[in-house]
Design brief:
The protein has 240 residues and is mainly beta. The protein has a single domain, classed as YmcC-like fold. Helices cover 7% and strands 64% of the residues. It contains one helix and 14 strands, in the order H-E-E-E-E-E-E-E-E-E-E-E-E-E-E. The chain has a ten-stranded antiparallel beta sheet with strand order 4-3-2-1-14-13-12-9-8-7, with no helix packed on it. The two termini are 45 Å apart. The N terminus is likely disordered.
């Protein structure tokens, strides 16, 4: 083998090694099903339930899902996500990506981000902005109720900022006297202010499952304290 052929062979080996742990966009089929054990922690309150997701149909860009809460009186709900499991909803009158845990093909070291600003997201906030940076960090073996899987771990760190609306609160109370009563009025005004916080997310994507086998989402308030945590663990699945 001459010198040129040796260099070509070395380049080929390097290319194969670089893509050895590259995970392509999965293909979904009608009937693909995943069931998760979900834990929602808010302060001292913990809520747990099971959720089943079932593919009803797919297109080139979207997955149509039937979501069923196990052992719940609520009936099945229809929803739609992007083909890469991104969630899209209306933000200021425009369809906007608000969550994108995967960016296929997935490969250790790959990074991406999303950001958006929403006006009047609730009665308290005048405006709210979110930014999330995702990175595929490592290949791990992870154990969940559905079994043991080789998965690529995606971590997301981000922050949020909100402008709080000013408030005008009026309270009244009666003060009783021996021969009369006086009505006392108290007015309290608060100025507009800005509050901030941080987020952490982790997803373990298993190619054999076509989805994450575990996810953790944490939200921190202005003081850096954990305000809520959501954990999903796969309990069973059936994919074609």
């Amino acid at each position: 083998m001459n010198y040129k052929n040796i260099l070509m062979a070395m380049a080929t080996v390097a290319c194969v090694a670089a893509h050895a742990d590259s995970f392509p966009q999965p293909h979904f089929s009608e009937g693909d099903t995943w069931t998760y054990q979900i834990s929602e922690q808010k302060g001292q309150n913990l809520n747990q339930y099971q959720l089943q997701l079932k593919v009803s149909r797919t297109t080139a860009t979207s997955i149509y899902l039937l979501s069923t809460f196990i052992d719940s009186p609520r009936g099945p709900q229809n929803s739609i996500v992007d083909i890469d499991w991104a969630r899209i909803r209306d933000v200021n009158g425009k369809e906007t990506v608000v969550s994108r845990p995967f960016s296929f093909p997935l490969q250790v070291g790959k990074s991406w981000q999303i950001s958006f600003t929403e006006n009047n997201p609730n009665p308290t906030y005048k405006q709210e902005s979110w930014t999330q940076h995702y990175t595929a960090t490592d290949i791990e073996t992870i154990q969940v109720p559905a079994g043991k899987f080789s998965a690529i771990k995606i971590e997301g760190e981000g922050d949020w900022e909100a402008e709080v609306n000013p408030t005008h609160a009026v309270t009244q109370g009666a003060i009783g006297l021996p021969n009369s009563a006086t009505l006392a009025t108290h007015v309290q005004n608060t100025q507009a202010k800005t509050v901030t916080g941080r987020t952490y997310k982790a997803f373990w994507y298993a190619p054999t499952v076509k989805r994450w086998v575990k996810s953790v989402e944490e939200y921190y308030d202005t003081d850096g304290k954990l305000s809520s945590r959501y954990t999903n663990e796969l309990t069973s699945f059936s994919v074609n």
